[in-house]
Amino acid sequence: MDNFISNDNIKIFIITHIILLGCVFFIVYFKDKISVYLNILDFPDHHIKVHQLPTPRLGGVILIFYILPALLINYHITSNELKTLIITLSLCIVFFSIGLVDDRKTLSATNKSLTLLIMLLFFIPLSDELIIKQINFKNLNFSINLLHASIFFTIFSIFALYNAYNFSDGINGVAATLGIFWIIFVIIKSENYTNLYYQAILVSLIIVLYFNMKRKLFLGNSGTNLFSIIISLILIQEYKNNNIYCDEIFFILFLPGMDMIRLSAQRIISNKSPFLGDRQHFHHLLETVIKEKYIFLVYICISITPIAIYNFFIKNFYIVFALSIVLYFTIFFLLHRPQKIR
């Protein structure tokens, strides 16, 4: 990929980052007032939410104020397809808004899921750029043509990533670090180092991570919703550009995806709703043996392991998949506690 950028574009990048950083630090400085005004303070309940003080759920606000302007400026520089840009903006606003309402007053998981699915069913079919029509593997000698199932597979994939990313949120630093890992992986694989949009995602997540680890704010449902749709659409587009393969996406999403499958199955078998909250997520299990401030580091190291093994050591999908399953369930059974659902 040609990463050449003109001096004028470099100036635009620098000025954009300076202005957006100013906006973000303004938000952080007035975080308490903004959170009270938006009614998005997260109060501890001492069961699932064990933080000590009411904490602003401002991560999503920071992300949207940094990322969407960068997306628009990046479009102006690169002249990508306008239809895809409009769909991306629309879905970002929809996912963020539903998350923000959920932060203000907890929404029914069923109603929230149905609304998001309807929005995906409406927007995704409008652009071929966002539809996965074929599944291609990096180190397997076959591909799958999805034909008429392509739209439904695409929507299922986006919705699954949305749920998996939400399942990763719950311990300070975990969701933000996971997002940083994913976007860095995308940047490296696509060699798209000069993409202002990608830069904005990375910088805003680092800012959120810093203040999240300081216990100053949470990513919030608006943040997890917004990032999940952003990274979903990016992965689809980079996949269609042949920069990332299906098996690579599978392995970078393995840990949160496996945790989602395990927890959902566990709750259904126990005759409980798969949407009920608890403290049996993988990162909560790590909490039994690791101090909270280090959990995000251990979580991300485990997340990176499958794709690192696959890209640098064992280029066999089936072997790496089996090893990843063994690693996940070995840790799970070593740390497993009786489930406590509230």
What percentage of residues falls in helices of 4 or more residues?
55-70%
Spatial strand arrangement across the major sheet: 1-2
Structural classification:
mainly alpha
The quaternary structure here is single chain
- Mean pLDDT equals 91
Sheet with most strands: 2 strands, antiparallel
Query: Strand fraction band?
Result: under 5%
Distance between the termini: 51 Å
Order of helices and strands: HHEEHHHEEHHHHHHHHH
Query: Could you tell me the radius of gyration in angstroms?
Result: 20 Å
Query: Tally the helices: what do you get?
Result: 14
Number of strands: 4
User: What spatial form do the alpha-carbon principal axes imply?
Assistant: globular
User: Any low-confidence stretches, pLDDT <50, length ≥5?
Assistant: none
Outline of the structure:
Helix content is 68%, strand content 3%. The chain is an all-alpha fold.
Describe the structure.
It is a single chain. The protein is mostly helical. The protein has a domain of 236 residues. It contains 14 helices and 4 strands. The strands form 2 sheets. It has a two-stranded antiparallel sheet with strand order 1-2. A two-stranded antiparallel sheet has the order 3-4. Strand 3 and strand 4 form a beta hairpin. The radius of gyration is 20 Å and the shape is globular. The termini are far apart. The mean pLDDT is 91.
